[in-house]
Amino acid sequence: MLTRFDPFQEFDRLTRGLFGSASGVTGWMPMDAVRESEQVVVRFDLPGIDPGSVDVTVDGKLLTVKAERQWTPAEGAEVMIAERPQGSFTRTVQLGDNLALDQMQANYADGVLTLTIPVSETAKPRHIEIQHGHAKQIEGAAV
Predict the structure, then answer these.
(1) Comparing C-alpha atoms, which of 113, 97, 89, 106 is closest to residue 31?
(2) What is the pLDDT of residues 77-135, one digit of tens each?
(3) N or C: which end of the chain has fewer CB within 10 A?
(4) What domains can you pick out in the chain, each with its CATH number?
(5) Three-state SS at 108
(6) Bridge partners of 67?
(7) Sheet holding 55-59, edge to edge
(8) What is the pTM of this model?
(9) Are 42 and 33 in contact (CB under 8 A)?
(10) Does 9 have pLDDT greater than 70?
(11) Is 68 exposed, middle or buried, given 0-12, 13-18 or 19+ CB atoms closer than 10 A?
(12) Strand-pair partners of 109
């Protein structure tokens, strides 16, 4: 038999419920975002999530990830501890202007949702060629 006493557990659950989802950050759907050369890779931890319940949408510059995890104990089972979050979860992220959102790719494997977003051509570093020689005259001013 398992026994666990944590007087702050219920307070933490209520705090997450009240403040987590209102701000768009649940604390349950942790993420990493990394720029790797010519793309941004965003990873969301979604352990135990059915891939069919994951929904990724982009509206303007807002990326929204929704997922659902449901668990129902077997009939007659006595739940002794239930700490794993259940229900619907949403995470919203503001994206920058320099991403090619129409080329975004999504993959879900091993409980991790990975979004790969290419950096747009206009945002990529580029080399500017420097002209050599005398400055041209335009209406009496050197350019």
Answers:
(1) 113
(2) 999 988 888 889 999 999 988 899 999 999 999 999 999 999 987 656 677 888 887 76
(3) N
(4) 30-124 (2.60.40.790)
(5) strand
(6) 89
(7) 55-59, 62-69, 87-94
(8) 0.67
(9) yes
(10) no
(11) middle
(12) 112
